[in-house]
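seq as requested:
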Amino acid sequence: MVETPCAVTHADDRTRLTPSANSLFYFVMNDSIRISDYDYGLPEERIAKFPLERRDQSKLLVYRDGTVSHRRFCDLGQVLPEDSLLVFNNTKVIRARIIMHKPSGARIEVFCLEPHDPADYERAFAVRGSCEWQCIVGNSKKWKEGALEIPFEYEGKRCRMQAFRVLNDGRNQIVRFEWDAGMTFGQLLEHLGKIPIPPYLNRESEEIDNSRYQTVYSKFEGSVAAPTAGLHFTPELIEALKAQGVAFDEVTLHVGAGTFLPVKSDDVMQHHMHTEHFEITPATLENLIAHAGRVVAVGTTTVRTIESLAGLGWRILQRGTPDESRPVGQWELYDIPAERSGAELLGALLDYMRTHNIAKLKTVTQIMIMPGYQYRVADVIVTNFHQPKSTLLLLVSAFVGEDWRRIYAYALSHDFRFLSYGDSSILFPNRSEGAIR
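struct tokens:
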């Protein structure tokens, strides 16, 4: 298709529920999947190091009915199903990288992953004076003991922030921050921290990243990586889609650094999936149920969130509770019988939240979506192009089958830009692969 210009407008397998006799889990377990089969050549020059001048001028690959074409992202409204529901992840990227120096001059980088005390994101960003976070510490061997310190000015006063290592248990560590300025921890990060752009960009964060490595609809602080499929949306495009009759809703999943972790074992069953915090409201469940068959998930983080809801619904049908204190397990959704629909599972969760007057349900997910997985909530996916041999490429393959190879070959041969700041795609399910909706 010719491009057209656009007008500016920590649970493990032992915590799984007992699998049913017709569970897909047995299919996945007995049909070994090798990550080496999900490799492709990605030249360094195809990785987008910086965003385009305009978000919605990126290319949009369209995969539907087994055919591949492309447009501009601002043409999205022309390819969306009628009466679609676009679901966004409204998480906000925090300035999670804090650069500190020892008196000797040694550079220590503290990368905040998730709050430890207080453990709730909202309270962690609102706290004043001190808090503890789970962190990755760069050049950790140089920080053997004592406190690191950053002097700074705030409201005309000389202040300081100190960091103390409370626990050193391998790569991830607990760091306590103390500061004497009259600001919250969220404000402190805005003042001293840097945006944690992906490591594969091979550069330091710059001023442009402060605004462009953030969606225009971001609201709730907590991510250390952007839900990058949403980076293509502009306020003008969102308003144009609304005027067209497209419905919108939002979920919140805080993206962790684990999204960049490589699959180290060739047997993907041996990969330990990272956990990510998410929350959902009854109103969003109502919207998802009302738009069953027309749910467009913007980004893989949204996919992981709304598919995890099916797992919570299945827990309710089995045990009468979503048990939100326990993560949605890595393989748990493979145990759901094939005949259970997404609407039924979401309905069970919605009824539970209404009965118990739950305005917002918070939990974490560890699900891993790969070939053999049965999608129940996401009907269409908007997503960027992912790294070779990654869990996100497995997620795409589970949706479109082996056609992921044609999709990526097309993108490479048509000069698409790859990864976080790259171009996008809209994927419709490959029904020939036998997926049940």
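Residues 16 and 332 are 5 Å apart (CA to CA).
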